[in-house]
Specification:
Helix content: 25-40%
Number of strands: 20
Distance between the termini: 40 Å
Number of helices: 17
Oligomer: single chain
Largest sheet: 9 strands, mixed
Radius of gyration: 24 Å
Strand content: 15-25%
């Protein structure tokens, strides 16, 4: 929570203090005026659909102690804020992102007792973050990123909403462009961190996987010693870009590198893995100090086993009890729309992985579809992936080819030209025309596919969030 005077907030962020009210800022920052309450700080973003500057007075009426404008404020609103005792600040350059990041950094500096754990990577960030939150939460008072709030707005909101008694912050750091993770890392200053992998997410914006690796490595820039620990970074040693991140960024910055994987020399090693009929993995684990353990993961698929290695590496580095941490991970709640098993009205089981997608996560989810027990047909309902740039057609083709290679009984492809690329690749790989259904919209998919699903069928639903396939899931569940 924020415990700063409005003059200190202005000094920390470069904002201009226009009205100094009597109310004290004593709670979190927020960007939705409807959530405002006593002691909160409302930050008014001027969005494409909603301009938060129109709700400054509304937030004050609900008890906000201070509001931050990103545009001119009319005299009537200024007068009302003053009469309510609510302070008014104007963000420097009308840049509310910068305001939040600077304020988060100031609050972080005021809490050197926090152990901050940062998570970045192309895929698996949220699963790893959830594992770390469960593991650390089993032994320390832990605050973590909610859902997928990992960007230049979401991360500072996470820091600024940390309870006063928090001991550990688990922060997810996402990005679209080079330079963003360095800004996020500066705002939360992690002591422990991990890079889940380097894939092709955002390759359309960054141009190459090497550039993506460099962008992920920016997490090192803000890391610092805290809580008696030196900075440590966990990496999957099997990754192609592990040496670039470790030797090119981490070690020169004095950050200890912990490698996790399947190699005998890895500090944390996956000794064994087996899948049950629901596709859930039981993973045998070994650490370089001789410790051995086992965990049965609550979500399906082999990919989360890699996330588990990273979580265990940081738990070990922090000095926590590894057995208690694994028990907490086994019992942790599932994140919605991420390999969530649901039952359709027809009786079909639906693997709802509609939250987001990248080529690597598409392949991992298709692996889940292929390995789970199924009495009926295996159906893949796939939509398009975003932010792949000039590589989009090729990478969508890879996904279509992979779906065909996994032997799906029905491949439903939703969207435009990129869905055509998946379909063409699936045909090239030998999937019959009868097993491919091309549909333009999610509504068409619900109308055509919903009625033909039956009990015993297993249905994977996955695409980038913008494709809206979560509406397909809702449609077949109704």
């Amino acid at each position: 929570m924020i415990h700063l005077s409005v003059s200190d907030i202005a000094a920390a962020t470069g904002a201009t203090l226009l009205v100094e009210g009597a109310r004290e800022v004593s709670r979190e920052a927020l960007i939705d005026s409807r959530e405002a309450g006593e002691g909160t700080l409302f930050v008014a973003f001027a969005g494409e659909r909603v301009d938060g500057n129109a709700y400054l007075a509304a937030a004050a009426r609900q008890g906000a102690a201070a509001v931050v404008a990103s545009a001119d404020v009319d005299e009537k609103t200024v007068s009302e804020l003053a009469s309510l005792g609510c302070s008014l600040l104007r963000a420097e350059g009308d840049d509310c992102e910068k305001f939040l990041l600077r304020l988060a950094r100031r609050v972080r500096e005021d809490h050197p007792e926090w152990l901050v754990v940062g998570v970045t990577g192309s895929v698996g960030k949220t699963t790893t973050k959830d594992m770390l939150a469960a593991a650390f939460g089993s032994q320390r008072r832990t605050h973590a990123t909610r859902g997928n709030l990992n960007n230049l707005i979401g991360l500072p909101l996470t820091v600024l909403s940390a309870p006063d008694d928090a001991e550990v912050l688990v922060c997810e750091l996402g990005m679209n462009h080079a330079g963003e993770i360095s800004r996020l890392s500066a705002a939360c200053e992690p002591t422990l961190a991990c890079v889940t992998n380097v894939g092709t997410s955002h390759i359309g914006l960054l141009g190459s996987r090497e550039n993506i690796a460099r962008a992920k490595a920016e997490i090192v820039s803000g890391m610092r010693a805290a809580c008696g620990l030196d900075p440590a970074l966990a990496l999957l040693s099997s990754g192609d870009f592990t040496p670039l991140i470790a030797d090119g960024f981490a070690r020169p910055a004095g950050v200890e590198v912990i490698e996790a994987g399947q190699g005998e020399k890895d500090a944390v090693r996956r000794a064994s893995i087996s899948l049950d009929e629901e596709g859930r993995a039981t993973v045998g684990l070994a650490c370089a100090d001789g410790w051995h353990g086992e965990a049965r993961l609550p979500m399906p698929g082999r990919a989360p086993a890699d996330d588990l290695l990273l979580a265990l590496a940081l738990v070990w580095r922090a000095g926590l009890d590894r057995d208690r941490a694994l028990a907490a991970i086994e019992d942790m709640p599932r994140t919605r729309m991420r390999l969530e098993i649901r039952t359709a009205a027809s009786g079909a089981r639906v693997i709802d992985d509609s939250y987001n997608a990248a080529p690597a996560s598409m392949a991992a989810s298709l692996d889940v579809l292929a390995t789970m027990a199924c009495e009926g047909r295996r159906v893949a309902v796939l939509g398009e992936m975003g932010e792949l740039g000039d590589e989009a057609a090729r990478l969508h083709g890879y996904v279509g080819a992979y779906a065909a290679a996994k032997g799906v009984d029905l491949l439903v492809l939703v969207g435009g030209e990129l869905a055509d690329d998946m379909a063409e690749a699936a045909r090239t790989m030998g999937l019959s025309e009868d097993a491919i259904e091309r549909l333009a919209t999610v509504e068409d998919a619900v109308r055509v596919i919903g009625p033909v699903l039956g009990a015993g069928d297993l249905v994977l639903v996955k695409a980038s969030r913008a494709a809206g396939l979560d509406s397909f899931v809702r449609g077949v569940l109704a």
